[in-house]
Amino acid sequence: MKNLRSTAIAVAWLTVLPAVAFATPAAQTTHSKSTAPKTKHAATHAMKGVIKTVDDKTLVVAQKPGSGHEMTFVIDPSTEKVGTMNVGSTVDVRYRTEAKRHIATAVTVVNDKAKT
Length: 116
Fold this sequence. Notes:
Elements: H1 2-35, E1 44-54, E2 58-62, E3 70-74, E4 80-82, E5 90-98, E6 101-111
Parallel strand pairs: 3-6, 4-6
Antiparallel strand pairs: 1-2, 1-5, 2-3, 5-6
């Protein structure tokens, strides 16, 4: 009798648990598809170079000294800055492009010429 009750309980658990496990993700998936807004993530890019000019709102970086290839970046309050940005410092810049403008998301000073 005790064995029969244990078997009945085990069968009940084995029947109920998979049903709950399969029902839950389906319900969440259906719900999230119908209410979640679709957002497009902007691609991010990276560049390393030497600072030509810098102020509170813009940063101009030359990719190779003397190459003439320069990029201008918009700096805003959300831009993460590591180190002190001075003319002549080597920096790594992470950025995204919006409406043909390069928006700096992070600027890291790699080599500060002003200190040497």
